[in-house]
Amino acid sequence: MGKIKIIGSVCTGIVLCGYIFPGQLQAAPAANVKASVNRTETPERVKESLILPYLFSTESMGLNLGIGGMLSGYYQDQMTIGGTVFGGEVSEAVGGGVWNFKLPRTERFYLSVYGMLGYYPDQRAYAGSGIIPTPGSIPLPGSNDSINTQYLEADGASNWFDIKLEYTLPIGATADKGLVEYKLKNGLLISPPSGGEVWNPWESGATVIVLRQFNRYQSFEFEEGDLDGTVHAIELGLLYDNTDFSINPSTGSSQYFSISHDAAWLDSDHEWTFINLDMSKYFSFGESEYAHQRILALNFWTGYSPSWSLEYAEDGSRLVTDNAPYNEGATLGGFYRMRGFDQNRFHDKAVIYGSAEYRYTLKSNPVEYVNWLKFLKLDWFQLVGFVEAGRVGAEYSADELLTDMKFDFGVSLRALTAGLVVRADIAHSNEGTNTWVMVDHPF
């Protein structure tokens, strides 16, 4: 079997780290529907808590031990507090934060603050073309034609910190209040859906504006010397989520548009801009003998960096300037998009991506009858098959992005536990087979 990829060499807190890492793993939209989840099986109603020790082992990081926990719905129905710490022979990390805190004396403003400090062995970056000129005879590292041995790798730090302010518009499902209240039985929605009937932001679904300020610092400790990079950027985005149940959609659609910009302030490496569009659509085929739900989920994502440019030297070598770092912007590969490839395997000026998943929510739940596992609050298991296609390119055109595309396919086992979707994906591409453990659907 292929290598085990543990959330970008950060953590495998699985169930409880889901609220901790989406800020760093910002492939999914930065905005989300503000919601409270009321499980009829839980006496505390919207309150959920979980503490879980864990261990994981990877080829690069060795054996690591950790513990994490989360509290949801205690101070405010939609608010979550979480944290985790883990360490191994070389690696160590601590992270946490607060999500969806409704600001005092407001009904629609929500603040989230979260981050992580860590040190990891053998960090890998398919990058370098913005530092060292690449000969004209060699593809740029991370480009569509590059090979998977064109990377930088060394021990080093990887730290990040995000703060975001979201505003829920007073239209559609949030016309009367800033959050949506979902009621579940056996993990299935029994309250009225928040969207999916008609595509009209004034009548259906939730619309959210987000302003996110995000910071990244990463270092590589080579024998010849250290190499590091810093990001201090801002993202402004608009989400319209017209799905029936935003945590596990079965019908409806969602659209997210955003612009990210780093003005090269403080100690940022350089200035760059990235424009992003993410769209998803869901079709329900109803119940069957063995399934509560049968869902076809489709996703399309595209992006473009107008600041990205190439400088050519007299010898034909090229140097990339004003580009987003390899793990931001037009990037493919990893636990969200193109899961059959390494994390952040491809990146360039422009990108296009599409995915289809068939999600089969099982009626059978063997954990339901195991008393010592009831603390997981596991409502259902879901079997998923998926295919993906994507391409990065040096220009935004059909000729560039719709030829020589990359493909992969895979299967996934997912579960709804304590109101969170957790997943273990196995994906295969022409560069290998990867296993990813993550929280939330990829879209």
From TrEMBL:
Q: Name one Pfam family in it.
A: Omp85
Question: What is this protein identified as?
Answer: Bacterial surface antigen (D15) domain-containing protein
The organism named in the record is Shewanella atlantica
InterPro entries reported for this sequence: Bac_surfAg_D15
- A cellular component term (GO) from this record? outer membrane
- Which residues, if any, are the signal sequence? none
Which keywords has UniProt assigned to this entry?
Answer: Membrane
List residues of the Bacterial surface antigen (D15) domain.
229-428
Sections of the chain in a coiled coil: none
Kindly list the places in or outside the cell where this protein is found, as annotated in its UniProt entry. Answer: Membrane
- Is Nuclease one of the keywords? no
